[in-house]
Design brief:
Elements (H helix, E strand, L loop, with lengths): L9 H11 L10 E5 L5 E5 L3 H4 L3 H22 L10 E3 L8 H5 L2 E3 L6 E5 L19 E7 L6 H14 L3 E7 L6 H5 L10 H8 L4 H5 L4 E2 L9 E5 L9 H5 L6 E2 L6 E2 L1 H16 L3 E6 L5 H8 L4 E6 L3 H17 L2 H4 L3 E8 L4 H19 L32 E4 L2 H4 L9 H24 L3
Parallel strand pairs: 1-5, 2-3, 6-12, 6-13, 7-9, 7-12, 13-14, 14-15
Antiparallel strand pairs: 1-2, 4-5, 8-9, 10-11
Helix pairs in contact: 1-3, 5-16, 12-14
Length: about 450
């Protein structure tokens, strides 16, 4: 009886299996190892032997190779493998909406045949996808943190006020649906629109999204005397109704209008954001992202081409949490598509011993980026001739994504019940460096719109 095979051992065991078992005919196409929701492995091939070979002898030989492989997979993977007679599926016989998932399977260096790996998950898939967003007029900035209580929403509100003062047309999205708070900072209760983002999700699911779109954005009084505009799309509207019942229906994939497959809730969210940008003619979109590793957090970080501000405290808990996320990005190679858009933010820098705190923060941030984000620099630079310059930064490089952008804790800001009493002196004391960074992101985006 095979011994236990733990979840984290599976991928390496499959690699070893393919490297030692090279009798699978390459004519059957790529070999895709699919881990299902229970953590068990099946293998997907492009074609059956009968579809790949005309000669009966070759068909028989290929079937025998598949049977032998399936038996060895069961021996190697134990309870993580399906029985040999259920080990193989064939792509042409699967539902059409599975195709996009199979296309996203990542390659494992093991073949021939070419081996790829796909995790089918209930949640968590969004963190590994980095679709190329369509060009947009608006510059998007996502405010993300692993934990709440780090001043992320307040920082987004201050940034919105700052940009509206410059004459920008700013759209703010409160996507922290489980713990909404940004909306109340920017909109008094009596000025909330009728509907919010959660309302749009439930109405769009039955084809009524357009009705909600008309009444889900309101102007913030914080910008009433400013040169620009400040629009807010709250998580819920003036009359939230049964908010929890609606919240539980936000993460649904819905049938396409033509009946051909489904539209994922992630794509629905991207569609909503694009529609609001166009309706309000936004120059800048600021997105307050749900804290943590929930799927709703992934879309603004990975799918929108947004600059991503990573709010952090200099604590072991913070760095261990970011390590889990960065390890996943490194493992799935998503980090290569994201890393030029990342910037760490030192939140709530204490009033005392600030220099020492920021030195410690910088070292921990550099350790994180060095291990999971930055390229290794070859010892002999001539070896990399003709290749792209490595993405790498020294510890003290102030232009690096690991270089902390400080937001200083200030007792005056902490005592504010809402942000309608903001003044220059208070903002300057806490946010000067942070707002300089925001301005720099917009300037860089204007110079390089791609």
């Amino acid at each position: 009886m095979p011994g236990p095979v733990l979840f984290d051992e599976v991928e390496e065991r499959i690699r070893e299996l393919v490297q030692s078992e090279n009798s699978l005919p390459e004519d059957l196409g790529d070999l895709i190892a699919v881990r299902d929701l229970f953590g068990r492995i099946r293998f997907v091939l492009e074609k059956r032997p009968e579809d790949s070979f005309k000669e009966k002898a070759l068909q028989k030989s290929a079937r025998k190779a598949l049977e032998d492989f399936a038996k060895k997979a069961k021996e190697k993977l134990g309870p993580r493998a399906y029985p040999p007679d259920q080990a193989f599926l064939y792509r042409g016989e699967l539902a059409s909406d599975v195709d996009s998932e199979l296309n996203a399977a990542r390659e494992i260096d093991a073949g021939p045949p070419r081996l790829r790996f796909l995790d089918r998950q209930v949640t968590g898939l969004g963190w590994a996808t980095t679709p190329r967003p369509e060009p947009t007029k608006a510059h998007r900035i996502a405010f993300y943190s692993l934990k709440g209580g780090v001043g992320r929403s307040t920082s987004a509100a201050v940034a919105a006020w700052h940009l509206a003062r410059q004459g920008k047309n700013v759209l703010v999205l409160d996507l922290d649906l489980e713990a909404p708070g940004l909306s109340s900072s920017l909109l008094p209760t009596e000025q909330l629109p009728d509907f919010g983002i959660v309302d749009w999700f439930v109405e769009d699911a039955v084809g009524q999204g357009e009705v909600v779109l008309k009444e889900m954005v309101a102007a913030s009084p914080l910008a009433q005397d400013l040169d620009g505009q400040l629009w807010v799309a709250p998580s819920h509207g003036r009359l939230p109704g049964d908010y929890l019942a609606k919240l539980g229906r936000c993460y649904l994939d819905t049938p396409q209008p033509d009946g051909n497959g489904h539209e994922s809730w992630e794509k629905r969210l991207v569609r909503l954001i694009k529609e609001l940008e166009v309706r309000k003619g936004a120059d800048v979109v600021l997105i307050d992202v749900r804290a943590g590793l929930a799927d709703l957090s992934s879309v603004p970080v990975t799918d929108l081409g947004a600059d991503v501000l990573l709010f952090a405290l200099d604590t072991d808990q913070t760095w261990e949490g970011y390590k889990l996320l960065f390890q996943h990005w490194r493992r799935t190679e998503a980090v290569r598509a994201l890393r030029e858009r990342l910037q760490i933010v030192a939140a709530l820098v204490p009033e005392t011993e600030r220099a020492e705190y920021l030195d410690s923060f910088r070292e921990h941030a550099w350790d994180l980026f060095r291990d999971y984000v930055y390229d290794e620099v070859p010892p002999n630079p001539s070896e990399s001739d003709g290749e792209l310059e490595p993405f790498n930064f020294d510890l003290t490089d102030e232009s690096a994504p690991h270089a902390p952008v400080p937001i200083y804790w200030h007792r005056g800001l902490a005592s504010l019940r809402n942000l309608h009493a903001l003044d220059d002196q208070l903002v300057s004391a806490s946010f000067d460096r942070f707002l300089e960074t925001i301005d720099g992101l917009l300037k860089a985006g204007a110079e390089d719109p791609t």
